[in-house]
Amino acid sequence: MSLASSLRSVVSALFLRSHHENEMDEELRAHVQNRADDLERCGLTPAEAERRARIEFGGHEKFKEECREERGGFWLDTVWTDLRFGARMLRKTPGFTAVAILTLALGIGANTAIFSLLNALALRNLPVPHPEQLVRFGVRSPGDDYTGLSLPMFQEFSRTQKVFASAFAWSGDGVVNVEIDGVLSRVDEFAVTGNFHSDLGAVPEMGRLISPEDVKLDTAAPSQVVVLAYGFWQRHYGGSRDVIGKTLKIENLPFTIIGVTREQYRGVSADAPPEITIPLTAEPLIYGSSDVKKSLARPDSLWLEAAGRLKPGVTMQQARAQLRALWPGIQQAIMPADQTVAEHNRFVALELKVESGAKGASFLRHRFVKPLYVVLAISGLVLLVACVNLASLLLARAASRSHELSVRVALGASRGRLARQMLTESVMLSLGGTVAAFALADWGSLALSDFIVGQIYTVPAGLNLSPDWRVLGFTASVAICTGVLFGLAPAWRAGKEDPHAALQQSSRTLGGGGGLGKGLVVTQVALSLVLLVDAGLFIRTLEKLHAVEPGFRATSVLDVSLFPKPQGYKNLARVSYYRELTDRIARLPGVESAGITHMHPGDLYEWTERMCITGTSGEGYTSDFVMLMPGAFETLNVALLRGRSFTWQDDEHVPRVAMVSKKFAEMVFPNGEAVGQHLDVLTRPKWQNLEIIGVVSDTILYDVHKDRPPTVYVPSMQYGDYMGWSQLLVRTNVPPTSMADPLRRTVESLGHECAMSIKTVRQNIDRTLLQERITAMLSAFFGALTLLLAAIGLYGLMAHAVTRRTREMGIRVALGASRGSVVKMILRETLALVLGGVLIGLPCALVATRLIAHLLFGLSPYDPTTLLFVAGALLSVGILAGYMPARKAMRVDPMVALRYE
Amino acid sequence: MPSQAQILPGTLDLLILKAVSLGPLHGYGVLLRIEQISGGALLVEQGALYPALFRLVRQGLLKASWGTSDNNRRAKFYELTAAGRKRLREEADGWNRLATAIASALNTQAEEV
């Protein structure tokens, strides 16, 4: 058929429908009339002639249907009819429709939300021109995660490479104090080379961005200019357009605002845009370097990250090969002369890493992609359960529609046509669910990303969650697959409908579809079991992690970040100042003890050093390294086991001292007394000959996932510059929140520092458990959803079975079966289904838990408690879902039941 | 179409084309014409005629127009298009070749092999 004629038939099917219908009716009627006339002429009575003509013609509606099919454009016609009929059927059962759409909205919405998050974290490219050209490179110690470059390394690479059109570098880990009109805040800061903005194709919202003139790498007096992010500008300046030329203070140094980036700009980060950006050369300045030129020229300080834009036609592999070839020469060229042996060894061991930079850097990706994939798998499983559930509900509905379907078959509907009708209805349901799901997913992914980002960054979520083709494609395919999947069973059954049997009333036994329905319920229970076991394991993991107490009650210890007021540290006698501060805080009502440290208890990232016994050589021992002041041990509940503890007299005027944990003492001095021995810090030439004055009990100060590590403690009073920017730890015996104000006032009253953030150590720990919390939270939500679906599915099937078997029940009761035995019978059937599901589900669950074993903590993937609990939960849900229909069956009045048909 | 099952597929279309080629006809007329030209030997299931007519129209082999029948009823008349005429010729040739071949095959005597 030509295109024109198919178009014509589609158009005429669309617009001339009723006209065609009338004509066809008229034509067929005329035929019968003509025939009747002829028969009448042969001597039959008019009535008899009419009857014979009709019989000879055959199934009127059947041929009409065939004619419609032959007319062309038919598919469109049927789709339209199916849609209208489907809508009518769905309207007739609003309860079922609502449950179905809600189930699908939750299932598809959850999947879309999690996929959106994954998409933003792991799949999307940076919103810059030609992101695929970006290649990141840097060096790292073997086995180390951290990759970086020193400025001399970067300069050598840029000078000698021929694969990049240009290369740029930045330092992006900074969180700095910014003062705007006398108000201090903590701000994420980026320091960049002069071509950073132009190479990323960034365009200013207003003003100008950082240019090569701002970043002269050989300067001693860097230009102090700053570019604001759109969000920062909105939050701190209310979007006022006259900020250009104004000054703000970074670490108390004045910087002139030269421009604002656009709202979409997020630099090289997929997580969040840098709030402020300054020239690379100004970075040493704000970290208090007195000689900028010397700081920049340090060859072994890996403080930069770098990327290049590939020249057209150059591949990643070629770039990697060339950079790798260049690296040994660069290493030789910039080799520092004045290194210790350890420093030298570390420098030579540095290896080059080259990878695609298209997706941008993301701290969140590193930590959340794996758990998110697990959660996506779980939510996919939930959707599958929802499909199975809907399939069994639809099947039950199809069974009660069996009479209608039989009549339609008898009137000439083809089986394919009926199946198509059922599929249309299920796809309609799933599309309805998808529309609702989109709203849900939008809200869900935003809430989730706000929650995650809010725990990690100081800025609001910057993840790009707007739906792109991937998300839309994902949702659309999920929706359609879902619709087809749960519509398939009823459609298949509709296709098998036998008009004779159905028309003769088939409700005497459980009958057709029962087997399929039971199979679906068993599948659903098995899937639910897999899902619930996983959810249970995640929840128990979190529980175990929560139960880890770091040696003190984490809820009653406050962690207060201290920051200098402007000029606050100038000419300050720090030791006596901190002694005074600690004393004053400790005297506050409600405070049990207080002490200063330089770490956040509960944080993931520990300070480790390699230690060796003074006078020996070799690799040394890796140990956590903690600086603190008197009072901190008491606050952290660390007990002195031998020797003495630090006092305020252990300052810069006396030889350096240290304390070690029991584990460290046992590791380094297995046969002797640790107290009195001397230690060296391998990589710090000046930190040598530390005398061990005491041994303390083991404790967990950092990551609760890890066992109590060997630790070396030193008094910060002996490390002059390290004394500022510290953490004040306070143990209270009153609700910690009530202490915030007195603490702030006391710190301020001394005039040198202010308290920026006050958190309990529990909050610190919770932050490090974010990944586990999110996995547990989401899988608990999905688990509850699954359990609900399983209950609906079982209840639906049993209720339906009871209705269909009313007559059988009536006969049983009439013949003397006790009502109790009827209840028992129904319950037995339900339990058999659940048990079948559990038996099939158990081995599947055991396989599935092996896949998530690496995300668990403190329990085996075959944790019997979880398995038993989940199986028990499913059985109870099964009993509950079976009991309600059973009670209904028990109340069947034999008279009513027998008269029912 | 159980009663048509024994008849070779496509035969109905060919018969309709032939019937209409002798002059425009309405649906019932086609039926009568086929009975007439086949000497009453071929009996067409009446209802099945219409899907076939719709199909031929869609394929552009027939063209339909409304007119008035002998007994003054409004009726839809079918006539052959140029394409239909061509198709009829081809199909008739094909059919004749097939029929001749089968007939000669069936008439073969033992001594001729």
Primary descriptors:
heterodimer, A: 901 residues, alpha+beta, six-stranded mixed beta barrel, 29 helices, 21 strands, B: 113 residues, Arc Repressor Mutant, subunit A, three-stranded antiparallel sheet, 51% helix, 14% strand, elongated, disordered N terminus
What class, by secondary structure content of chain B? Answer: alpha+beta
Low-confidence stretches of chain A: 506-513
In one word, what is the shape of chain B? elongated
Taken together, the total number of domains of chain A comes to: 5
Q: What is the CATH homology-level superfamily of chain B?
A: Winged helix-like DNA-binding domain superfamily/Winged helix DNA-binding domain
Beta content of chain A? 15-25%
The main sheet of chain B comes to: 3 strands, antiparallel
> Can you give the mean pLDDT of chain A?
84
Which fold name is given in CATH as the topology of chain B? Arc Repressor Mutant, subunit A
End-to-end separation of chain B in angstroms reads 40 Å
Major sheet: arrangement of strands of chain B: 1-3-2
> Quick check: average pLDDT of chain B?
82
CATH class of chain B: Mainly Alpha
Ends distance of chain A: 53 Å
Largest interface: A-B, 27 and 23 residues
Question: What topology emerges from the helices and strands here?
Answer:
The complex is a heterodimer of chains A (901) and B (113).
Chain A: H1 3-15, H2 17-41, H3 46-57, H4 60-71, H5 74-92, H6 94-123, E1 134-140, H7 151-160, E2 164-180, E3 183-192, H8 196-199, E4 204-207, E5 225-228, H9 230-237, E6 247-250, E7 253-261, E8 276-279, H10 283-286, H11 292-297, E9 305-310, H12 316-334, H13 341-349, E10 351-356, H14 363-400, H15 402-410, H16 415-456, H17 469-495, H18 499-503, H19 514-547, E11 557-564, H20 574-587, E12 591-597, E13 608-613, E14 621-628, H21 632-635, E15 640-643, E16 657-661, H22 662-668, E17 678-681, E18 690-696, E19 711-715, E20 727-732, H23 740-749, E21 753-760, H24 761-768, H25 770-804, H26 806-814, H27 819-851, H28 864-890, H29 894-899
Parallel strand pairs in A: 3-8, 5-7, 14-19, 16-18
Antiparallel strand pairs in A: 1-9, 1-10, 2-3, 2-6, 2-9, 4-7, 5-8, 6-7, 11-20, 11-21, 12-20, 13-14, 13-17, 15-18, 16-19, 17-18
Helix pairs in contact in A: 2-3, 5-16, 6-14, 6-16, 6-17, 7-12, 14-17, 14-19, 14-25, 16-17, 19-25, 19-27, 19-28, 25-28, 27-28
Chain B: H1 11-21, E1 25-26, H2 27-37, H3 49-58, E2 62-68, E3 74-80, H4 82-107
Antiparallel strand pairs in B: 1-3, 2-3
Helix pairs in contact in B: 1-2, 1-4
